[in-house]
Amino acid sequence: MMLQQQLPMDTVAAIAAAVDSTMAVHCEVLKSLVKIPGVARPGFDPALLEVSAARVRELFQAAGFPDARIVRGLGGTGKPGAPAVLARRAAAPGFPTVLLYAHHDVQPAGPSEAWTTPPFEPGERDGRLFGRGVADDKAGIVMHLAAVQAMESVLGPGHGLGLSIFIEGEEEAGSPTLEGIFAEYGKDLQAETAIVADSGSWKIGTPALTASLRGMVDGIITVRVLDHALHSGTYGGPVLDALTVLARLMASFHHDDGSVAVEGLLSSSALGPDMEEGVFRKDAGVLAGVELAGRGSLTSRLWNKPALSFVGLDTEPIATAGNILLPEASVKFSLRIPPGNDPGQAMEAIRQHAAKHTPFGAELTFIPGSWSKPFTVAADDPAVQATLWSLETAWGSSAVMMGVGGSIPFAAALAEEQPGCSILITGAEDPDTRAHGTDESVHLEELRNAILAEALYLAHLQFTSDLAVGR
User: Fold this and answer.
1) Which domain holds residue 454?
2) Are β-strands 84-89 and 69-71 bridged in parallel, bridged antiparallel, or unpaired?
3) What's the whole-number mean pLDDT along residues 231-237?
């Protein structure tokens, strides 16, 4: 079903032409960003984040934001966080301010030999651009740059819209100092609407507005059974090693069908279209013969139910393992929580489950980690309808509203800080993007459409405001 036209068709055509005329330039900008491996995690060179932030600041200054600057939030210990880029242009009377969000930090690339081409040497194949962070989320930075440029090339620099830019530097590390950013720079983030460019389409050719996000809590569980390592032959039998005890505890967190077995976690209502199992298995790379876990529709399992993963294990590496009973072993958990769950209560539910199910009386240590809240959008928000129109116009295909199983801490934080702000989550990813995995990529035609959709939405805001103030 086609939505009501939001802009004159000649304006739509002119903006589309402006986007197309600069796509090659912006692809080169994206490549330049991918070459900077800025990871906001311990053990990675923090100087590279400084280089990444400086490059982003330079790009926005050149794009007409002379006040673009590097800022940092203070964490709970008072230590400054990773560098972010902030810029702002004031709105004319009667015009709204739009906040444009993305992040410049990336996930670790993992072993480079697992990639078809080196992760920080961007390369094009079959209409896609490959490289770590190319989609998540350096494509979001380019979306904002290119969309603003296309809109202003048609409407002129005196369009009246206020524009606020926030490019975060530690989203992939859980946004640990985001609260400090809001405390120090909250006035610069004030806006009537926000475009969070860190998601994507339902599938190639079908655009989507992300209407819900799961939140996340993580932490570390440690079990200890001995005060020192023992010879496995001399003492094995009466005492189980810590890794075996930990494995039994880990297994208790899921039912036999793979659904989460932790008491007190809630599910939410399904939203959007369902997904075919064959398509999901292909997109996810599930091996033949591996059964899917959980209950209910695939989209409900991905968006509306809790999901618990164990993402890291501290124990003796195989290469140096001796025939000993390990005294201690630790695992890092990552729990995704759908809308309706409170992160603090979810963390406590995990702790209580671990305490209840630790076998053989092993000593348990539970260290809570980071958390982020789930997010939902109001479907009746006029900004949602205008965004769906812009997506459908850019793609030439009906848009859908979908959930996403991942987390964007900024979206939930902004909703809490500014409850009147319309938060619109879009992006250039698609089901084969492989964000966080090897051979991450962005489909260049999808990127072009995402840029155009954002430019059209901005132009819609200007057009309707122009009519309202009678300019």
Assistant:
1) 9-213+374-469
2) antiparallel
3) 95
